[in-house]
Structures are given as structure tokens and as C-alpha cells.
Amino acid sequence: MQYYILMKTNSPSKKQKVCILSFENINFEYRVRNQVIYLSKYFNVEFLGIGEWEPPKTVSYTKLLRTEKTIFYYILYASLLLAGRICPFFYQYIFNLKSEYAEAKRKINVSGFDIIHANEWDALFVAVRASSGKNIKIIFDSHELSTEQESESLLWKIFVRPFRKWLFRKYMSRADKVITVSKPIAKSFSKDYGLENVEVVYNSKPYQENRFSKTNENRIKVIHHGAAIQNRRLEKIIELSDLLDDRFVISLMVTPQDQKYYKFLEKKCKSKSPNKVMFIDYVDYDQINSVLINYDIGIPAIDAVNRNHQFALGSRVFDYITAGLAIAVPPLNAYKGLVEELNIGVVGGMMTVESLAFVLNNTSAIQFDKYKKNSLKASRQICLEQENRKLFNIYNEIIDSEKKESYAKMSKSNFKKK
Questions:
Q1: Do 228 and 265 form a contact (C-beta atoms < 8 A)?
Q2: 46: phi then psi, degrees, rounded to nearest 5
Q3: 335 Cβ contact partners less than 8 Å away, ≥ 6 residues apart
Q4: Are 226 and 291 in contact (CB under 8 A)?
Q5: Tens digits of residue pLDDT in 79-122
Q6: Helix and strand totals (H; E) in the chain
Q7: Pairing state of beta strands 7-8 and 11-15?
């Protein structure tokens, strides 16, 4: 692979100017933070985003103010979604409801960016609209299957899904490159929107040199960590504990993002034997690995309430791989594919806790050790450093194509002069 010096075609002494655009709170967006930090090593990066954050000194951060969602906002939003069902022309006016979209568009119009890295569906719309008539390359980064994000809701399915499908049909092909988080989402984009070469960049974690630890055949330690969110159905992990044999003990390390649901889980957990399942205190992000290395198995997800959950690949599975844990999951498309490809764990035959319990109960400590060793091996192959190289190559490809376009225009101009 040939690497080019990352410079503008018309100004060899100047770095490419990159806009990283996101309308989600940066403090909850690990993927976006990594983009900003990594790409700023090679480009002149400006981040347009939401939330209080201290970026690297080399990065300019334009903090966008999030629109307050009043009753009037929701009435207008619902009216436009309804009108869009009748005539899709009205969908475009939904983007007039949020001031952050207009502010980002104004910033892009005056900043002379070479590349916009648009994170998620709303950033794609703004990027395409703002770059119209300009020589700006667009990378669309889809963190989820956004057209199915809350499709367990009938109202969402009837009104929001058609809007997002319209947006993808109209604007996704305008991106110079589309990347996403899992192979099932990439395949879905290729099938549904006729895209070629959708690339997968995993939400991997930095490589850490962790040692293999042998599984105690009499006490196999299982863990799930993350936020207590109701549609993740974490109570099923507690139910799983009743079905596992006496070798297994489960720890839940969850944050009370939904206080009511967290208390429900806590109460349900206390009704079980502490020898089977327990709550443990959550730790800061940089200490998660030091906790996980004391476990044998990680459960990244236990159920799917919609197609997005089937296709998405959460970052916690990479925490488990980095720590050298075996993985246990029901047959969720993205997780199943990853686990089987890398041979790092077990997959239930059906979407039930009974099915997952069956495969766990019928797996020996020796087999779990094999999976754990494979996880440690995989942690080198798909670590953050490797995925960042993939991201760099994508940018390099974009710049290479821009150089070819400039060369073709120059050659055509010279030919006409002759």
C-alpha cells in the first residue's frame, strides 16, 4: 500500500482541512472522540459537536448548542413527519427545526473544509447540503442501523422510519465513502441502497498486553458491564443465572442511566443467591480492563428488541476481547458473526436464555480457555490501532481520488489549450 503525503493538491505546504461533525453529546461518543484525537495527528481537524469536552490542543472545537425540544417543537416535528408520509418533499423541512443544523451549515460554508466526516444520519444531511457546489469530500459514518433504531415502537415505525429511509435513499449515495460498525449493517446498506465497498471500522479498544488466566472449573466468572437501559433487557441475564449450573457466577457492573430500571434490576438481583448473580460497583472507563481481566466470560448483549440490535455491534464486546475473555451471546447477527469468525466463544441456538444456558452448561473449562486464548490473539488483530490504520487508509483513498480528479481536470485543460 502506497501512502501519500496528506496535503492539499493546490497547496503542497498545507494539511488537508477536516471537519468532524456529530450531533450527539461527545461525552457519550467513544467513536467520535477517537476520530478527533487520531485524525488530528495527520490533518487540520475542526470538530463541530455537542457537549462540554476538552479536545487535543491542535483541534479547534466549535460547540453547537442543542435546540430545546418544546411542545411546539414536537407538534411541528410530528406534522412534518405526517406530511412527509404523503409527500416526501416536506421531510427536508424537518432540518429547519434545529438551530444546531443551521449553525453547523454556516460554519462549513465559511471554513474551507476539504473533507467532512459526518457521524450518523443527521450529520449526513447537513454535510451534503452544506457541501453542495463545493469541492468537499464526504465520509458518512453510520454508528447504527438508523432506519431501525427504535422500530420496536409502532409510532416510530410508522412515522420516523419512512423519513430516515427517504434520507438515506436521497443522500447516502452522495457520500464519497460510507463506513459503519458491523458487517451486517454494511451488507444491509449495499443491498438496500446499491452501495459498493461499504467498509467496516470496528469500535475497538486500544491494545493492552493482558496475560492468559486459566479458568477455574469449579467457579466460572461471568460479567456484563454498561448502562442500565430498559430496551437492553438486562433482567434476562439475571434470569440466566437461575438456569446455569453451580460452576457459574454472574456479575453486573452497570450504571444507573435509567434510575427506575436500575432499581428494578437491583431488586431482582437481590432476590437471587449472591453465589449466582450480584451487582458490583462501576469503575471509571480507564479502569474497566483491570476489572475484566479477573473474569472468564463476557456477555455483551442478551436480547434484541429491534433489527438495529440484531445488526449493531456495541463497543463492550471489544472490552471483553481486549481483556482476553470468552464471549457468550444469543444469535444476534453481528455478535454471532464476530464470535464465530474469531472462534472466541459460544452462541445460543435460539433467542432465549434457555438456549444460551444450554450451550454454557455444556461447555467445559478447557473449551472456555481455548476461547480466551483466541480472544487474546484477536485483541492484536482488531485493536484500535489496527482499526485506526484502516481509517487512515480510507482518508488516503479519498485524497488519492481527489488528486486523480485534479490531474484529470488539469490534463483536459491542457489538451484544450493545445
A1: yes
A2: -120, 130
A3: 300, 301, 313, 317, 327, 329, 347
A4: no
A5: 999 999 999 999 999 999 999 999 999 999 999 999 999 999 99
A6: 16, 15
A7: antiparallel
C-alpha cell at 74: 414536537
Residue 201: CB atoms within 10 Å = 18
| CA 88 to centroid of chain Cα atoms | 28
- Output the nine-digit C-alpha cell for 415: 489538451
Given a contact cutoff of 8 angstroms between Cβ atoms, the answer to whether 134 and 17 are in contact is no
Q: DSSP 3-state helix, strand, coil percentages of the chain (rounded to 5)?
A: 50, 15, 30
Rounded to two decimals, the pTM is: 0.89
The DSSP letter of residue 198 is P
Q: Which residue has the cell 460498525?
A: 181
Residue where the block lists cell 456529530:
22
Strands (E), 67-211: 115-119, 137-142, 177-180, 199-200
173-201: average pLDDT:
95
Task: Give, in degrees to the nearest 5, the angle at Cα 294 between 291 and 296.
Answer: 120
